Amino acid sequence: MEENSHILKLIVKECCLPLHFDEEERQFSFPFRYRLNEIWERLKPEIRRLNSEWFLRDFNAALAAFAFPLNQTEIIHIHNISNNELCNGEVIELDFKEKNIPEIYIKMGSGQYLNRDTGTGYTISEFFEFKVGNILLTSEGKRLGEIRAIRLHSPTDIHIALGRIFLTGYYRHTVSSSLWPIYEEASASMLNNPKDINCERITQIAIKNGIGVLPLLSILKASLSVKP
Amino acid sequence: MIRQEEINDIYLKRLQKDEDLFYIKVLPIETSFDVKLIRRKKFYGICCGKEQTAAPVFDEIVLFSESIADVKIQERHALFDLNTKRLISKFLYERIEKSGNWLILHRPKNRIGIYDLLKSCLLVEDGSYEAYNLKDDTTEYLWVRRGKYYDYINRETGKLHTLPGVIMAYDTSHGLFGLGEYGKVTYFNEYGVPKPKELRQIVLKAGGHLVLNNFTYNIQHIIDVYGNILNI
């Protein structure tokens, strides 16, 4: 297990670049360096030393995972969890009776959530319990729907390896009581000039706010819905 | 190798014989912890004040505190409680040594038992474990290692808690945390049942990231609410 973590870190270190915004693709990612086949040849002995059962196909699978980290979460099905039991930065997916498509939210603060796909922020009661059958109402009285299923998105080795290399020591900070500064930084640039997005600054804010790669990329995905 | 039953026989016979030798005066040897070591013929005993706490039937006595002593018969050691005037272990050990607030009870084949001097409690007698948390005596539970796996002992009750598939244990002031074979840290109750909600609450209370240490192996793991190790 630990050997695989070392391998993933090694791959991130050698193959990936820091957080970057691709304006054409309109996505945040940790892009790859060039000549990955040469990198594989160079890393092969070290990787084999750590785990003799790692082959090119595993290397390619890891690269595919690093290319789309938001799809690499571990899904945990739960029946209920209260707002207070969720940590800021956690990603929660809800199925509603009235909607065909699930909605994914990021907890930004106590009772504050950000829709990952629409970039809409919601405030709900601090004491709200996400529970199958409960109706999710915002503090303004807007009905978001009756909850049919709840899934938590847990970070995996992929996010942890990326975080170890590019969000150095974020876990030494406590998770901030509000994650809005990250969203505001990204969305302000989106609004003004996406070309000027300062990914290094966003990374530093994420580290100071104690969040890893999964919440960071989720918040940044939400910021993409802000159009200039 | 001398058998346990033989030593018990010798011990009982010596006690019997000592009663018969009441007319021979015991000699004071030395005093430590306000406890007097005595000798009758070639065997040693213990006196507290004028009262005889341990009859002079032992080959050797080492006092570790005012309440606990290492007594030896025929190359085998046992622990003797001065308060209850009773042996609190069998004559199982090749040697007994003090390490911090613990007594390490060495058995043959490199196995060890352990006695907690602070809690006056024999935590492990049979010594089937190979390693123990001997660095941090403030933890609620004491981890013990058998091969690749770890169990915990409640310091208060001395009760052993076997946890499923735990390959790393931590020195925490409260609770039972264990790293599983799939690389995640789990919080267990005393019956070895995983308690993810409790883990979540503990991590939240710690600010979203919880630092777990194993001071014996110099390991620090920082975990999130899911038990993922973030600094590995």
Question: Would you kindly provide a brief summary of this structure?
Answer:
Chain A has 228 residues and is α+β, with helices and mostly antiparallel strands.
Characterise this structure.
The complex is a heterodimer of chains A (228) and B (232). Chain A folds into two domains: 2-72 and 155-223, no CATH class; 94-152, no CATH class. Helices cover 37% and strands 23% of the residues of chain A. Chain A contains seven helices and eleven strands. In chain A, strand 10 (135-137) and strand 11 (143-154) form a beta hairpin. Chain A is globular, with a radius of gyration of 19 Å. Chain B has 232 residues and is mainly beta. Chain B has a domain at 131-232. In chain B, the strands form six sheets. A four-stranded antiparallel beta sheet of chain B has the order 1-2-3-4. In chain B, strand 7 and strand 8 (86-87) form a beta hairpin. The longest helix of chain B is centred in the first third of the chain and has 17 residues, at 4-20. The radius of gyration of chain B is 22 Å and the shape is elongated. The model of chain B has no long low-confidence stretch (mean pLDDT 88). Chains A and B meet through helix 4 of A and helix 2 of B.
